[in-house]
Amino acid sequence: MTTITPHWLDGAPFEGTHEKTSPIYNPATGEVIAELAHATPDEVETIIASSKKASESWSQVSLAKRTAILFRFRELLVEHTDELAEIVTREHGKVLSDAKGEIARGLEVVEFACGIPQLLKGEFSEQAATGIDVYSFRQPVGVVAGITPFNFPVMIPLWMSPVAIATGNTFILKPPGRDPGAGMFLAELWKRAGLPDGVFNVVHGDRNVIGRLLTHPDVDAISFVGATTTAKIIFETGTKHGKRVQALGAAKNHGLVLADADLDSTVNNLIAAAYGAAGERCMALPVAVVQEEIADELVARLVAKAKQVKVGPGTAPDVDMGPVISEQAKARITGLIDSAEAEGAEILVDGRGHVVEGYESGWFLGPTIVDKVNPEMTINKEEVFGPTLEIIRVTSLEEGIALINANQYGNGTAIFTSSGEAARTFTRAVQVGMVGVNVPIPVPVAWHSFGGWKESLVGETHIYGPEGVKFYTRGKVVTQRWPKQSGAVSFHFSGDSQK
Ligand code: NAD
Questions:
Q1: pTM score > 0.90 for this model?
Q2: Residues 158 and 84 in one domain
């Protein structure tokens, strides 16, 4: 009998009715490994009601107790990293070491949230007017729903939930339908860390379930990460229904390689950033914008390295790159490579049709290098989200910056150079939210915030770090006086009696 992945309610699995289910696959074999239960409208209602009820008590729990739970959660994540990584690899396909990498980056956010007493300290103005003190502090918004993408099934729920929970909110996770297992495992770890029932719930389902979360009066805030088209729907629907929404979208990141770059390290960085996780990272670097005079040499080295990338199931110890997430994703990526070829680009390394022995039904693609791309080609305009590396040649730093700025997305970018002056010009002029200098994947550490510009972000709020704390809380300012005796009535706005 097929295993059904249940929801999570009040600290335990919640089977529901299974009226509707969808398959969960192992991308390395193409086999169905479980079925996912989709929540009915009544079940969504039950889960939201539990989160609402829990928020009344959780918001009153002391910072000391909340922090103690976060520390325990952190320890459990470390202890169970191997188990969690295996779930990620089984459902997503990425190699085990990479799955552990995403857990480590998520762990950073948990550690950041362990410092919540410091982050929520507030401000105090003594004697703002005679006999009057003013203080400000932040309080939780209530119930937060987190809607997350398939490509980081652990890290992205951990970009959201530790900060939301530490600030006193309850959290409903809507994990990706393709790889929901990691989200369920996180629910179990939260429970074992001592989190009260109902503070972290999980609901599965399609756009009908999400629609309910976006419009329900008892959901106060929505955190979303995924494609831009989805981010726009989420933002528009959520804000229309009076919720605060943070919505991070798609990406098309370019790395500019100047003639004075250290070629050995640049080649290694470009290969890792293009093919790691089979290119299914919003901070992948799928386009190298290369200064003409070194382009031929760089491309020759990239071709040699790309041919050495070992493709196979993510569980195999010596594999660099696993399969892509689905048959549809494989067909879409192949179609974009076809389009580049048809539009005049040169395919120097061709990953289409790559077969892994013993895994013939898996959704594998080999590394691909597409040279002589021009910015107008379809492949450069669209997010590929697969193991492709495009090469675009430019004559100067300025041309490279202009080309990057002309792209609709602005999530991440990098410059490879040994010139501090060029790097400074680039970091100041480029219209992208996260910039690396000789760092190919500049995902900010947890005490900064993460977010892109332009079509990579809908609305204005970045995620985790200080912006996360602000997003999950509302400010309150108290002006207080403890008069010995009441004075005369003052009708002035900032009454003379207050000065
Ligand atoms: P997706 O937008 O298809 O799905 C994300 C979530 O939204 C899932 O939980 C899904 O169930 C839900 N969803 C999908 N369609 C919906 C709809 N019409 N209405 C309501 N909800 C819907 O994204 P994906 O394919 O899971 O993830 C890949 C995308 O995510 C890529 O575009 C990638 O760049 C982006 N991404 C961005 C970041 C970032 O930080 N900016 C990080 C990771 C991934």
A1: yes
A2: yes
Residue 148 CA, ligand 1 centroid: distance in Å: 6
Catalytic residue among 39, 145, 210, 282: 282
- Mean pLDDT, the chain, rounded, equals 96
**Which residues neighbour 300 within 8 Å (Cβ) at sequence distance 6 or greater?**
none
| Domain-embedded: residue 448 | no
CATH number at residue 187: 3.40.605.10
- Measured in Å, residue 230 CA sits from the centre of ligand 1 at 6
Say yes or no to pLDDT of 191 above 90: yes
Same domain, 242 and 281: no
The CATH code of the domain that includes 296 is 3.40.309.10
Residues 232 and 262 in one domain: no
Number of domains in the chain: 2
Length, in residues, of the chain: 499
β-pairing, 7-9 vs 12-14, is: antiparallel
| pLDDT, tens digit, 9 for 90 and up, residues 267-294 | 999 999 999 999 999 999 999 999 999 9
**293 and 168 share one domain:** no
- Cβ of residue 267 lying under 6 Å from some atom of ligand 1: no
Q: Is 374 helix (H, G, I), strand (E, B) or coil?
A: coil
Residue at 497 is within a domain: no
* 244 lies in the same domain as 335: no
Burial class for 145, CB neighbours closer than 10 Å (0-12, 13-18, 19+): buried
456 lines ligand 1 (CB under 6 A): yes
- Percent of the chain exceeding pLDDT 90 equals 95
Residue range 13-23: average pLDDT?
93
What mean pLDDT do residues 115-122 have?
A: 97
Buried b (16+ CB within 10 A) or exposed e, 46-82: bbbebbbbbbeebeeeebeebbebbebbbebbeebbe
- Ligand 1 site, residue 226, Cβ cutoff 6 A: yes
Q: Is 114 a catalytic residue?
A: no
Q: Convert the pLDDT of each residue in 223-244 to its tens digit.
A: 999 999 999 999 999 999 999 9
Structural domain boundaries, residue 297:
254-437
Q: Is 227 in the pocket of ligand 1 (CB under 6 A)?
A: yes
Q: Is 207 in the pocket of ligand 1 (CB under 6 A)?
A: yes
| CA 145 / ligand 1 centre spacing (Å) | 14
